[in-house]
Specification:
single chain; alpha+beta; D-amino Acid Aminotransferase, Chain A, domain 1; 4 domains; 6-stranded antiparallel sheet; 5-stranded parallel sheet; 15 helices; binds adenosine monophosphate; binds glycine
């Protein structure tokens, strides 16, 4: 079987790594991939938003299944395009991906189907005055969200009314997020610990994966600006069995049924970003894909053949499959370029990955790397996802940090407190 994976980050490296273990797979291509992925797959230089280029490649190479990593091609309709040509592809349609691509769609959907989430109101760019009035009436803290995809930057958690008003001015007035600024969602601030539940969904049947938790802020103790994610671990003990059951019954099932009932059946991976409030778990966000870096800790624990699961999703046979997981916990520490998520320099030589992987049950997933003069160098904000399994969480954390200590590049930055929340429990 020939598989094409679309994307180039740590998430896609983890997907390729998991696919590579399948005896059904003869060859994996990745567009555009990265040097780490290049050790397992053939990287092809096609960008993730070049849908026609990807389609032409898939036809020419007679790809059996295409697996989509990032949200951009999904929201552009790559699944609609491939399915229209009779090709097998893993991911939601453009319409179903709206759960991630449009905050206003997601909020209206949750309201319609009584799915627990933060209370909100929505305003168009002609309604700036009403939006400001609403903020005044609600007070702070309050959360302002631009409507479209804004690379994780479209959410402002405002501590003061003034901060909230200027966020509305920036989004609706100055349009700092471009087309994502036609609408804003203003929502209630929710207080609680966050966790992620990734789920396989085939349109009707859904199977939750093992739980995980991301670390969004750049510095220890959740300080500093938000990033794409600085580390993750799985399982997340905050998602105790009864809470997980509540998420499945009150969030996952109603979401899948709701999407089916409005004619946008959801197929692929559904990412539930959950916050544990005193009133129970609520949805902070949906994503229409695997999370990054959550995938690195979830797929390293997957025992079932990922190809079988993907085929079951595509063929709507998820009810006929049992998904099994490794009981050992996994931890991923993201090594980033100093300065990220602000300005940083590329081109720093990376050493020590082989030594780190010799520790056993350690995989170093590449995110922002490149080859320059035959040397592996940094090429992005998040550079590596150093991932380890352990007999218990303590062992996994210690091994992951030991691995990190063996890897070097100039101005490397990582958090020292990944999984600390789990130990605090
Ligand atoms: P989102 O892109 O919607 O996931 O938002 C990014 C981050 O902003 C989340 O992971 C939360 O940490 C925070 N956030 C979003 N919405 C809320 C909310 N209603 N209350 C508190 N924090 C929030
Ligand atoms: N880790 C957050 C995300 O994938 O959106």
């Amino acid at each position: 079987m020939k598989i094409l994976v679309v994307g180039s980050g740590g998430r896609e490296h983890a997907i390729v790594w998991a696919l590579k273990k399948s005896p059904k797979v003869d060859k994996i291509y990745c567009a555009p991939g990265n040097p780490g992925i290049g050790e397992l797959a053939e990287c092809v230089n096609i960008k993730v938003d070049n849908l026609q280029g990807l389609l032409d490649f898939a036809k020419k190479e007679q790809i059996d299944i295409t697996v989509v990593g990032p949200e951009i091609p999904l929201s552009l309709g790559i699944v609609n395009l491939f399915e229209g040509e009779g090709l097998k592809i893993f991911g939601p349609s453009r319409e179903a991906a709206l759960l991630e691509a449009s905050k206003s769609f997601a909020k209206e959907f949750m309201r319609k189907f009584s799915i627990p989430t933060a209370k909100y109101e929505m305003f168009y760019d002609s309604q700036k005055a009403e939006a400001i009035k609403y903020i005044m009436s609600q007070g702070a803290p309050i959360v302002i969200k631009a409507d479209g995809l804004a690379a994780g930057k479209g959410v402002i958690v405002a501590k003061t009314v003034q901060e909230a008003v200027s966020a509305v001015e920036d989004i609706l007035g100055s349009k700092i997020f471009g087309s994502a600024g036609g609408k804003v969602v203003i929502e209630e601030f929710l207080d609680g610990e966050e966790a992620t539940l990734l789920c396989f969904v085939d349109g009707i049947t859904s199977i939750p994966m093992v739980s995980s938790q991301d670390h969004k802020r750049v510095f220890d103790n959740d300080e500093g600006p938000n990033t794409g994610g600085m580390g993750a671990y799985s399982p997340a003990p905050v998602l105790k069995k009864d809470i997980e059951n509540a998420i499945i019954n009150k969030i996952l099932y109603p979401t899948v049924l709701g999407m089916h009932s409005i004619g946008k059946p959801y197929k692929g991976v559904l990412y539930l970003g959950i916050i544990m409030t005193k009133d129970g778990p609520k949805v902070i966000e949906y994503n229409a894909r695997f999370g990054d870096p959550e995938t690195q800790v979830v797929l390293t624990r997957l025992k079932t053949d990922l190809v079988d699961i993907i085929l079951a999703v595509i063929e709507r046979k998820l009810d006929q499959i049992e998904v099994e997981w490794e009981s050992k916990p996994a931890v991923c520490i993201v090594m980033a370029s100093g300065g990220y998520p602000g300005k940083y320099e590329n081109g720093k030589e990376i050493t020590g990955i082989k030594e780190a992987e010799k520790l056993g049950e350690v995989v170093v997933f590449h995110a922002g790397t490149d080859i320059n003069n035959n040397k592996l160098v940094t090429n992005g904000g998040r550079v590596l996802g150093v991932t380890a399994l352990g007999n218990d969480l303590r062992q996994a954390v210690d091994k992951a940090y030991k691995a990190v200590s063996l890897i070097n590049f100039e101005k490397a930055h990582y958090r020292n407190d990944i999984a600390k929340k789990a130990f605090n429990r």
